[in-house]
Amino acid sequence: MAAHNGAPVQGAQVVGRVAALLRLVGRKPEGTSLQRLVRESGLTRPTVHRLLTSLAAEGLLEHDAGTGKWVLGPEVFLLGSVAAARFPMEDIARPSLRRLAAETGESAFFSIRRGDETVCVLREEGSFPVRSFVLHEGVRFPLGVASAGTAIMAFLPEEEQEALLGDWAAHAGGFAVGHPAELVRDSLERTRLTGYSVNPGLVLEGSWGMGAAVFDRQGRPAWALSLTGIEPRFRAERQEFLGKLLLEEAHRMTAKLQGA
Which of 114, 115, 134, 137 is nearest to 124 (CA)? Predict the structure, then answer.
């Protein structure tokens, strides 16, 4: 269908809806219910069901008859395997994650920037038996929310930060309640001063995180390493130690990516 007077073509609208549903399903490894997908997508129930069924027919999604939830299908794995060859970040990030997890006992994560969000793509479990389960592969947060997003946003150009902060409620969505704009501004400033971010249980009470940005060849923050765990493991007396390790590994990764 052709576009008239600047109206989007129907096909592009469908692609956008399909992409949004795939991202929503991908946020939770255990799957997502139809009801939740309808609520979070803003689409009607018949539309969501029709798109999910079509995606399942192509192998991109599967419906778990036992739980009634929708999960990513085998075609997504195959496509991801091919894409991974073009983005060999695991080879660079995994050693840093293993060292962080081994030296701290906490769970270590690697997140990438995608537009105005961060997406967790890798994790390495630590040895400490009590863990935080806020973060896992596929989880997305708006920039400025959680430790990885704060670490990245803090080192963006000022005009980009102000564009996000200027419409903070729309950008942060449901996270804006626990992350008011002034608190985020303070957190960004502290991150620039120390080099690493601290999330004091703002996403989930009692679940703390720390992060450090990794920079691309142009010197822009494009990725982040982070550690998460329970509050007693992230008290002030230990933050300097954890921050130092995060910065060391972030600098090591940045040097490799920049060809130093």
Answer: 137
In the chain, where the domains are located: 10-78, 87-257
- How far apart, in Å, are the Cα atoms of 259 and each of 56, 79, 87, 221, 256? 42, 28, 16, 16, 5
Q: What CATH number does the domain located at 87-257 have?
A: 3.30.450.40
CB-neighbour burial class of residue 138 (10 A; exposed 0-12, middle 13-18, buried 19+)? middle
Q: Which residues pair with 227 in a beta bridge?
A: 108, 210
Tell me the β-bridge partners of 141: 118
How would residue 195 be classed by pLDDT, with cut points 50, 70 and 90? very high
Can you give the length of the chain in residues? 260
How far apart, in Å, are the Cα atoms of 85 and each of 63, 91, 136? 28, 10, 22
Domain covering 10-78: architecture: Orthogonal Bundle (1.10)
pLDDT tens per residue across span 4-42 = 444 444 678 889 899 889 888 887 778 889 999 999 899
The amino acid at 125: E
For the chain, the C-alpha Rg in angstroms (whole number) is: 19
Rounded Cα–Cα distance for residues 136 and 79 (Å): 20
CB-CB neighbours of 4 under 10 Å: 7
